[in-house]
Amino acid sequence: MKVLIVEDEKPLSDSISNYLKQEGYICEIALNFDQADRKISGCNYDCIVLDIGLPDGNGLNLIKTLKENKMNDGVLILSAKNSIEDKIKGLEIGADDYLTKPFHLAELNARIKSIFRRRNLSGNNEIVFNEIKINTDEKQVYVNDKTLTLTRKEYELALFFVSNKNRVLTKESIVEHLWGDNVVMADSFEFVYTHIKNLRKKILEFGGSDYIKTVYGLGYKFSDQ
To answer: What distance lies between CA 24 and its chain's CA centroid?
Structure first.
């Protein structure tokens, strides 16, 4: 899962990032409104953890930008204000949830997971596609009720594919979603092909069908059509 942390207090943003990375997230940080605006314009995120009290702009305007551009990123507002007006305004313009500082990192993690389930899994912790089942709490992929032994990136790739079934995913979007700022966008995406090849092989070994289709010149599509 890919998360953008928009928080101007660097010790807090680092603390959130370090905790979520230990939980298996891909994390990026924006320390002000301008950085966040540029990141949101260039990438998609499963969830944006957004402090609305930024030094150079109101975080609520970032939510308005997301909605105006019909972007589907989840939004969890952070605020030091325990104001019902701020909470209502944020939710009315499109935020998914609201958390008041100070908070426990475990609760933040639980709320991010809840947003992902509501947006991608109809509120469940499982997503099923024919003989393939993914449990997001266990971080496990099953084929014909047998557990696949996957690396973390292979699991994330499987979840990304199944969550976006029947959609063409470019190699660039796969890299951005699974590696974020941790990889340099190079001309060669051979490492992406290697992960896809390994995932396909493991699904086939357990009796699954080959749903990963190459869309020449564009990328890949996970589909049974």
So the answer is: 11
